[in-house]
Design brief:
The protein is mainly α. The protein is built from two helices and no strands. It is rod-shaped, with a radius of gyration of 33 Å. The two termini are about 65 Å apart.
């Protein structure tokens, strides 16, 4: 969610400095552009933090998946060996 906030006190600026209306509008636009640049910098920082979080989560999921596969392969191997010994002991093989 993005929120942009900019305050404008153009009349006070115009009254204090006795600026022309065009100069007041230019000052307002400059203030708005500064606010937008600051918001973009904040968004870029948030995006970098989110990317770091996503990369960390991705690597954790990868290692967990590899660990799970190794556990399942180990369990399957143990089952085969156990059943083979069981059937040999019962003289079914």
């Amino acid at each position: 969610m993005a929120t942009f906030a900019a305050s404008y006190t153009g009349r006070k600026i115009g009254e204090a400095a006795k600026l022309k209306p065009l100069e007041v509008d230019l000052k307002r636009l400059e203030d708005l552009s500064d606010a937008i640049v600051q918001d973009f910098a904040l968004m870029r920082k948030r995006e970098e933090e989110m990317r770091d979080t996503n990369e960390s989560t991705n690597s954790r999921v990868l290692f967990f998946s590899i660990f799970s596969m190794c556990c399942l392969l180990g369990l399957a191997t143990w089952q085969v060996l156990y059943l083979r010994r069981y059937f040999i002991a019962k003289k079914l093989i």
